[in-house]
Write a structure and sequence with these properties.
32% of the residues lie in helices and 20% in strands. The chain is an alpha/beta fold. The chain binds 2'-monophosphoadenosine-5'-diphosphate. 2'-monophosphoadenosine-5'-diphosphate binds at residues 130-135, 154-156, 159, 176, 191-194, 200.
């Protein structure tokens, strides 16, 4: 067996809160891979240098978290189609020739999390609350799942309108208060930061949402957000956001270490203990 330690990590600023080292560490141990996955604190001004030194420092690649996902677009050599559409990179792979490839696995993680809860769009609209980076990943995922209509509700309606212009006729834009837009929906997604620990709760009225709609929150701290609690109490099926984090890590792990890992209940419990 080779003595080479396969190195990867996550770059962020700050990075201590990241659950990725715990998540990848679990898989490394389970698969008996001689590898490491480190938290890498990188200030925004150092991102370019840090990425360009990956190869000489023996890294197979890195994940990127806040605030680097968009800035990396201008640094890497190639960007895959999904990352280009999302407008953000969460995985950088060091290629054989030393070039850097930017990928985005957030949209994949979002879809897999929904599919693991048997989500079917039933040819009905999906509603996304929010118009930032998280919403963009959800839009790409839902378009690729064939959702026929995507309604974007945002506090700043202009930003929702910009997304509708960019992504085309399947999208429409509304104010966050326009709860009529929840009618007929098969899915409601919170892609705002509301409900996150330390932020106000999301106070949207759910009375117009069909009880058969699935409700998911991209916020996973706390796991059961106020939105998910209220949705579950009125009979909607709910999917928390932790699954998205677990599933987005899978293709990155495969790229770094060459093994396709599994998302299991015990992985979920282990990662949860780190929150
Ligand atoms: P992310 O990358 O996590 O999506 P972001 O790009 O900063 O973060 O987007 C945050 C989203 O949460 C936006 O849709 C934002 O609404 P605005 O576009 O109007 O800013 C939404 N958001 C944040 N705080 C909010 C609040 N107090 N009320 C309503 N929406 C809020």
């Amino acid at each position: 067996m080779s003595d080479v330690v396969l190195k990867a990590g996550v770059m962020g600023w700050p990075v201590e809160h990241s659950l990725s080292p715990r998540l990848h560490g679990y898989w490394l141990e389970r698969a008996h891979i001689k590898g490491s996955y480190l938290p890498l604190a990188v200030v925004p001004n150092d991102l370019s240098n840090a990425l360009k030194s990956l190869k000489e420092n023996g890294y197979r690649g890195v994940n990127l978290t806040v605030p680097h996902k968009e800035a990396a677009m201008a640094i890497v050599d190639d960007i895959d189609d999904i990352a280009r559409r999302v407008g953000a990179i969460n995985t950088v792979v060091v290629c054989e020739d030393g070039s850097l490839e930017g990928r985005n696995t957030d949209a994949y993680g979002f879809s897999q999390n929904l599919l693991s809860a048997q989500f079917q769009h039933q040819d009905r609209p999906a509603v996304i609350l929010g118009a930032g980076g998280a919403a963009r990943a959800a839009i790409v995922a839902l378009m690729d799942l064939g959702v026929p209509e995507i309604r974007i509700l945002n506090r700043t309606e202009d930003k929702a309108q910009n997304l509708a212009r960019e992504f085309g006729s399947r999208l429409s834009a509304y104010a966050l208060s326009n709860v009529d837009a929840l009618k007929d929906a098969s899915l409601l997604v919170n892609a705002t930061s509301l409900g996150l620990k330390g932020q106000p709760p999301l106070e949207i009225f759910l009375g117009t949402l069909p009880v058969g709609a699935l409700v998911t929150d991209m916020v996973y701290a706390p796991l059961m957000t106020d939105l998910l609690k209220r949705a579950a109490a009125r009979g909607n099926k709910v999917v928390d956001g932790l699954g998205m984090l677990l599933h987005q890590a899978r293709p990155a792990f495969k790229a770094f270490y060459g093994v396709d890992p599994e998302v299991t209940p015990s992985l979920r419990s282990y990662v949860l203990e780190g929150t």
